[in-house]
Amino acid sequence: MEISNRDGWAVMHGLVLGTIFLLAFAGGLAGMWSFAWKLVTPEGVRERLRRLIVGTWGMAVVSWAAVITGTYIVYPWYRTAPPQGTTGAALEEYPRYFLLADPSLDLWHKFGMEWKEHIAFLAPILATAVAVMVTYYGPRLADKPLVRYALMAMFAVAFAAAGIAAVFGALITKNAPV
Question: Comparing C-alpha atoms, which of 120, 130, 159, 148 is closest to residue 58?
Fold first, then answer.
């Protein structure tokens, strides 16, 4: 079994970076949920705050790395145009055109890749916003349950956008690998 350069970057983009972001979501959500004065001591708040700041910034960085590798490394291979007159099985080397040539597969590009191209960018944007707000509020976040709930909601939307993009990416790659 051999892994090509393209396969390696696709694995780094989806399986490594994407998985780290999606798995870290649970820890970040639990950390924010339990970040309240009534649940921990002042020393516990300080310790949890450090973990929350490092965790949210780490998730933001990982999500940006996933989006950047997908957009600027993997995606151009997906969009490579075939030589004029290429049809049939030869289109398998050109994933976008392979999907669009088959009416039973064209929805993978028309909806799935459009989601990945546009909506998936919400994940790093929202993850960064959450990290900024956690850093800005610091220990005061323990006194502000509504702010924490808003941050958890932003986190959940980021998770949903990334999770749906991950499912589409896996299914598109199954039908038309880069």
Answer: 130
Q: Left if phi > 0, otherwise alpha if psi is -120 to 50, otherwise beta: which for 41?
A: beta
Joined together, the tokens standing for residue 90 give 């030869």
Asked if residue 108 is part of any domain, the answer here is yes
Count the neighbouring beta carbons within 10 Å of the beta carbon of residue 177.
16
Highest mean pLDDT among 39-48, 145-154, 168-177: 145-154
Domain limits for position 27: 5-80+90-175
Residue 142 domain-assigned (yes or no): yes
Residues 6+ apart with CB under 8 A from 137: 144, 147
d(CA 82, CA 62): 33
Question: CA-CA distance, 27 to 52, in Å (whole number)?
Answer: 9
* Residue-wise pLDDT tens digits, 31-45: 888 888 777 788 888
Entry pTM: 0.88
Does residue 131 lie within any of the structural domains? yes
- Residues 108-129: tens digit of each pLDDT: 888 988 888 888 899 999 999 9
Residue 14: CB atoms within 10 A of its CB come to: 19
- The total domain count for the chain is 1
- Domain for residue 26, yes or no? yes
CA distance 78 to 100: 12
